[in-house]
Structure formats: C-alpha cells, structure tokens
Amino acid sequence: MNRRRRIYEGKAKILYEGPEPGTLIQHFKDDATAFNNEKHEVVDGKGVLNNRISEFIFNHINNMGIPTHFIRRLNMREQLIHQVEIIPLEVVVRNVAAGSICKRLGLEEGTQLSRSIVEFYYKNDELGDPLVTEEHITALGWATPQELDDMMTMAIRINDFLSGLFLGVGIRLVDFKIEMGRQIEGDLMRVVLADEISPDSCRLWDTTTNDKLDKDRFRQNMGGMVEAYQEVARRLGIFIDSERPKGSGPVLVK
Question: Which residues pair with 57 in a beta bridge?
Fold first, then answer.
C-alpha cells in the first residue's frame, strides 16, 4: 500500500491527490476550531456528519445549475472533488444578526435584517480574516469585477435555496460562509462553489425554540455539538442510524 500524497491540510479538512488529473479527495476531520484556532478540540464523529450534510446540499446546488467542485461522496469521510484555485475570500451571507456583525455594529443577536447582507472577508488567519470591500478586492487583485458579480449572484441564489430548505424542516438559516474557486477547463475559466456547507459553516436555529444547531455550540461552550449536527442531518432525512460516526484517521489506499 502507498500513502496518498497530501496536497493541503486545513483546520477541518485534508486534501489528497485524486485518482484522475484535475481531481482531489477531500477528507473531513473531526477537529473543531474557533477564534482562528485559539480553541481546538477533536469532536468524535463531526467529520462524518459534515461530509454527509455537505454532500446532500452540494448535490442539490449542482442540480440547480450552480457550478460546484463536488463530484461525489466516496465514503463516510471523503468526497471526490474538482481541483480549483481557491479565491482568497470568504463570502458571508447574513439574514439575522449574529456573531461578528453584532460586535461591530452593536446589534442585538437575533435581530431580523430587513434584507440579506453579503460580506467579503480576506482569508488570512494571521490578520484575523478581516472584512474587506469590493474596492479592496479588485484593487488588490484577489478577484475581478466579473468574478465578484458571479460570486454575489451565486451567494444570493444559494441563500434563497438554503433558507427554504432549512425552513421546511423547522430550522432558521441565520447566516452562512462559503468559499469559491476558479475551475479551468481548456481555455475557459469559471467561478465555482468550493469547500463545504455544513453546520460548521452555517448558523442554524430551531424555528420554535431558537436552540442552536451549529458550531456556536462549540464556540460558546454549550456542549451537545455532535447531537445538534445529528439533529440537522435527521431533519434533512440523511442521517442513517446504522451509521455510527466514529473518528478515524486518514485512510490508506492501494
């Protein structure tokens, strides 16, 4: 057996060389981090749940005609994805005030925004992923004006879909973070959705009780993180009781 070539390791995922040119294998770890990795724990089973939830959502987004890096799920912890050049921006869509916007603007958590807000953050842990404007992005060459337009359009469409999806199972989509990349096919280049969409990257509240079903349970020392993720999966109809999301290391392949 030969160990797969590791391309990149982040806080919650590892990327391995894929079986074909232009592909990668995305492995979901059980690591939970917050506050730019100042808080770090291993939460047994988190990676399995995020893999399944993200697969479910990306399949729907692909079917909507929005391009993504997702090809298919390989096993309980891994996905086959297209290799893309990640744009160094986090795109955050907010429907309800929570998290950093409350600190910046003095808003009360839970305040319903009159319309959805799309924000951009520069992906740089050393700088704390600062909020940036469209002028910063284009002047510094992180993305072109056309790419920004594409990213905004995709983010709004994804927000509309996710809001309806979660509302249908009694969950309020407070906000979410996505990442995007450039996929090159011959002489053509397009912006595609990358990374993941899961309770790690969304704020999800029960519509009746306002119970938090997302990573804030870890950030705020509330406990019950895996149970909350399991509840999201159960409501979406994708959690199978016979699958026991136990932790495991990277898999060796022939």
Answer: none
State pTM to two decimals: 0.91
Q: Tell me which amino acid residue 103 is.
A: K
User: Residue 160 carries which DSSP code?
Assistant: H
Task: Render pLDDT for 63-113 as a digit per residue (tens, 0 to 9).
Answer: 999 999 999 999 999 999 999 999 999 999 999 999 999 999 999 999 999
In contact, 47 and 200? CB cutoff 8 Å: no
**How many of the other CB atoms lie within 10 Å of CB of 96?**
19
Q: What is the pLDDT of residues 144-201, one digit of tens each?
A: 999 999 999 999 999 999 999 999 999 999 999 999 999 988 888 999 999 999 999 9
Torsion angle (degrees, nearest 10) of CA 168, 220, 98, 169? 0
Strand, coil or helix: 205: strand
Residue 136 burial (10 A CB sphere; 0-12, 13-18, 19+): middle
Q: Which CATH number fits domain 85-206: 3.90.850.10, 3.40.50.970, 3.30.470.20, 1.25.40.10?
A: 3.30.470.20
Res 248 pLDDT > 70: no
CA distance 216 to 207: 16
Provide CB contacts within 8 A for 127, sequence distance 6+: none
Strands, DSSP E only, in 133-254?
171-185, 188-194, 202-206
